[in-house]
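Running this now, will post back.
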Amino acid sequence: MEVFGTIKDNNIFLPSIPYQVRFNCKDGGIFIGGNEPSHRKSNPNDKIEISIIKVAKFFGNLGETTNSVWMQLFFVASPNVKPEILPLNTVCVAYIKKKSISNLNNTVTDIMSRKIEPATGIFLVSFNKEISKKGAYFSINFDWKERKTKVEKDQLNIIQEFWNVNHQNLMDLDGTRDMIDVSNLSAQEVNNLINQAKYSQLTNDEEKQLTSGN
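Update: finished.
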């Protein structure tokens, strides 16, 4: 009996809802299913190897963070990752913002400057401790390496086969329900959205103050 389908060997599995991964910038680490210690799958200094198969930019609200620019990452765990951390060859989705986006962009630019397609290699995710006016937090660091072992190269082949057929089906409707896709907008257009959101928030706050005053 197959109720939820099957995961075939040597294939990329795309769940009906992508496997939700939280890159936790408050506590530093990969978390699955929540923020409690029981949901922690990695520590800040651990380097978790992933293959990024799609990126997109969104603007909007996610969790307790509002009116922010987000980068959506679809990825699969590398063969070197223990299944207790992330399921092998299963499509996962996560979101990053601010400095973490800059860290990824810098790594990607460095790789591309060497005439290499970053998606052919493996990204190593870890967490950097940062200090801001609001206190300590973690940004996400992205190192990168070329595939060397046979199992790593074999995985790239099945990722390519999967991407050729399914790249247009990589969507996370739940995670982006309060966002809009800004992948094809210019930097100025995105900045206009941010300014409009700030203005709307200020206007709403002023209206609330006037209402409460009455």
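The CA atoms of residues 162 and 212 lie 55 Å apart. More later if anyone needs it.
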